[in-house]
Amino acid sequence: MYQAGDLIIYGSTGVCEVTSVQPSAFPGEDRLYYTLSPRYGTETIYIPVDSPVFMRRVISREQAETLIGQIPDVRESTLSGDHRAAAEQYEASLKTHDCTELLRLIKTAYLKTRRSVQNGRKPGQTDQRYLKRAEAQLYGELAVALGIQPDEVRGYIERSVTAKH
Known about the structure:
5 helices; Methane Monooxygenase Hydroxylase, Chain G, domain 1; alpha+beta; 5-stranded antiparallel sheet
């Protein structure tokens, strides 16, 4: 169970702070609820502690640094040529909420987009859509772990990877 002040990943919302853990405000319901405050939003989320929605702690700074160091070794996914099948693979990767899998998705969509542009074609909308979603999810978590803003994450990664190679 998480405590007030913990930073967690909550479903597709991303990074949230647990602001409280308290009994239900609904009469006759005997359940504990988390009150969550999304780090990159203004809403408040009120959910049962035993909700089936994915939740886990945000990675540590050390884990973030290790992950960034592994970027050159993360292999691109092999996608089917069918847009629908690619979208299903991308969606499955997003739903894992696994940082390495999100990196793989980002790398795959980025390289696929770059190849399209180099061949004189427009980038695929599916690739672009999932690239943005994966970046938002991963960069939000990395920003919190590294103590920087989400829009600074890409530059941080580029500097770190360049410095090590």
